[in-house]
Amino acid sequence: MEGGAMTRVRLTDVAKAAGVSPATVSLVLNDAESRISDETKERVRRVADEVGYSPNPIARSLRTRVTGTIGLVSDRIATTPFAGRMLAGAQEVARENGRLVILVDTDGHPEIESDAITTLVNHRVDGMVYASMYHRVIPAPAGLPAGTVFLDCRPEDGGYPAVVPDDYAGGRVATQELVDAGHRRIAFIDNDEDRPVAAQLRLRGYLDVLAESGIEPDPALHVFSPTSAAGGQQAAAALFALAPEQRPTGVFAYNDRIAAGVVTWAHRHGIRIPEDLSIVGYDDQQLVASELDPPLTTVSLPHAAMGRWAMEVALGLREADIDSPHLMDCPIVRRASVGPPAHLGSARDPRATD
Questions:
Q1: Which candidate, 130, 56, 142, 61, places its Cα nearest to that of 99?
Q2: Range of weakest confidence among 14-23, 50-59, 156-165
Q3: What DSSP line would sit under 209-228, residue for residue?
Q4: Cis omega (within 30 of 0) for bond into 274
Q5: Is 53 exposed, middle or buried (0-12, 13-18, 19+ CB in 10 A)?
Q6: Among residues 2, 56, 82, 294, which is most buried (max CB within 10 A)?
Q7: How many CB atoms lie within 10 A of CB 94?
Q8: For residue 141, which of 133, 288, 150 has the smallest C-alpha distance?
Q9: Are 178 and 297 within 8 A, CB to CB?
Q10: DSSP character for 292?
Q11: Distance between CA atoms of 250 and 280, rounded to whole angstroms?
Q12: How far apart are CA 178 and CA 70, in angstroms?
């Protein structure tokens, strides 16, 4: 130790202590094929341990072209509680396979994203994952290396492996849950912000199940809302401003936060769940869905499973079609917010007290 800095033990130091050439040390410690005797190999390894030698990872990566790192570029998943499970799933697979994930959360800024991709490529990461906080179709960012895996998004022109939730099937299963409970007047509270592909697919699933069940969709029951609890309250107020015979007995909400707003509004106006109104959400968001009163029946987004799948493809542990995204199942999570519909007019008219 000189001047507070620790002197790194070099390969030549091991060679000198073991009485062999640096080339011999390199061959032994890299397990390369050679005619070196077992006795010499044992001595070199023992001396390396005794003097505290550890290989230089930068030098090793230059020789092997393997850095042991995977780059993960995302827009906002690191700061989003429900999407953060994607990162956890990806990191778990990386850790199981001796890799370190280098995460760059760009907060949606194109310049930061471009710089991040360039930097990770220049640092010779072994693979790359490009992730989004919600299902969308996007142009592939410039500079992405071949084999980059798209997570919770897909490139509009294909050419890369991708994994996304099966939002069409998710929309179907949510609506079918209400149909199976006996509901015929089912509202869909949609996302009014940027109409991502997830919203379009969930709407298609909703409409197809209604058609297959012989239910004529009512445009008045398709309302739009900000993706928040406040938005859910506004949407519920609009639905229950309809004439009593037009009001829904069941609601499918685009996400759990909207559903939470519907629950709050219903409690405030004496509408019982599920006796007077059944609700199905989407996301199975932690600290939201299971904590509502009553706990929310919802569709689970398989974030952790998608993260694992993406990292397995990035590491070459599984094959993937570069032109067709892998659709991940979105199962229903049954709790207590769905029941059979009440008789028309059994719910108190909220406009009487507004």
A1: 61
A2: 50-59
A3: HHHHTT----GGGEEEE-SS
A4: yes
A5: buried
A6: 82
A7: 26
A8: 150
A9: no
A10: S
A11: 8
A12: 43
Does 294 sit behind a cis peptide bond, omega within 30 degrees of 0 on the bond before it? Answer: yes
Given a contact cutoff of 8 angstroms between Cβ atoms, the answer to whether 139 and 157 are in contact is yes
pTM of the predicted model, to two decimals? 0.79
Contacts of 298 by beta carbon, 8 Å cutoff, 6+ apart: 174, 256, 259, 280, 281, 282, 283, 284, 285, 289, 332, 333, 335
Alpha helices in the chain (DSSP H): 11-18, 22-29, 38-51, 57-64, 84-96, 110-122, 167-180, 197-212, 229-239, 256-268, 303-314
Per residue in 286-309, pLDDT (tens digit) is 889 999 999 999 999 999 999 999
φ, ψ for residue 152, nearest 5 deg? 65, 25
Assess contact for 49 and 79: CB atoms under 8 A: no
Q: Amino acid identity, residue 184?
A: R
Top-ranked range on mean pLDDT: pick from 161-175, 310-324, 330-344: 161-175
User: Contact at 8 Å (CB) between 21 and 27?
Assistant: no
Give the pair of three-digit tokens for residue 116: 């991040």
Residue with tokens 């998004």: 153
Q: How far is CA 101 from CA 5, 70, 73, 92, 282, in A?
A: 28, 5, 10, 10, 29
pLDDT above 70 covers a percentage of the chain that reads: 91
The span from the CA of 89 to the CA of 110, in Å, is 25
Match 């760059």 to its residue by tokens.
104
Q: Which residue type, as a one-letter code, is found at position 316?
A: G
Question: HSE (CB half, 13 Å, CA atoms) of 44?
Answer: 22
Counting Cβ atoms within 10 Å, is residue 251 exposed (0-12), middle (13-18) or buried (19+)?
buried
Contact 130, 141 (CB under 8 A): yes
Max CA distance (Å), the chain: 95
Report which DSSP code applies to 85.
Answer: H
Q: Encoding tokens for residue 282? A: 């989407």
**Who contacts 281 (Cβ-Cβ below 8 Å, separation ≥6)?**
253, 255, 256, 258, 259, 260, 289, 296, 297, 298, 299, 337
